[in-house]
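Team,

Forwarding the record for the chain on the shared tracking sheet. I've put the sequence and predicted structure together so nobody has to dig through attachments.
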Amino acid sequence: MAPALTPSSPASLPVSPSSGGGPAAVLLFDIDGVIRDVGASYRRAIVETVHQFSGQRPDPAAIDALKAEGRWNNDWEASLELLRRGGLGQPGRRPLPAFEALVEVFNGFYFGGDPDGDPSAWRGFIGQEPLLVERPFFEVLSAAGVAWGFVSGAEPPSARFVLQARLGLADPPLIAMGDAPDKPDPTGLLRLARTLAGPLGPEAPPVAYLGDTVADVLTVQRARAQQPGQRFLSLAVAPPHLQQPGREAERCRYEAQLLAAGADAVIPATDRVAEHLPLAPRGSRLR
């Protein structure tokens, strides 16, 4: 059962330094696979949605392979694509479901209630999401002069639930599904980076993005193309299901795909991100 939407106490936390000029760096996070483990929630909802319409359950490797293509950040669209590749919609086979019907089934598994309703009434897989960081992690970042926020393809109720109810972050800077085009379009990343850093360019602080998919890496690549004078850093982490014992070979292959897509570094865990973050002196003009 999902816990009630009750923020931790205290409920506020500064997202940028209060003194010493501008931030030393801007760090933006994906949420799924980076802030929370969605192996038993979003990914399970993909599996059960595909099964609902086709009778088949894709294995984790099939979902990983699809995500590695860099085009399927939206899990509704990923579910539909898995159905298509499984043969639905082909002559002599069942037709593909309408997208709206698929979304309804998916949300039934994931939320188990009205996504816009009271989270305490949710009975879906969202109640099975271990956190990968805790609130003090963000306090340490703020103390170091790092301005932070979130750019995620998660639905807004789901994103707010994990950030506000579970982590206790009051009104965190967030770009979620529907706020900007889906990744790897960099619109949302650039918008939030400007909000936290000010005008982007050679004199702005470095902007890093931590994600767990090829689409996340490509988002940074496209941001660089649109803002060539800005220093961007693409950081990546393998999703939690690949960090389990016995899956070292799969993890290595996945991390190699992230690096091949252009990640500047693959880190072992989200809470190690500060070790890879370039910090500019606050208030200085970068050269």
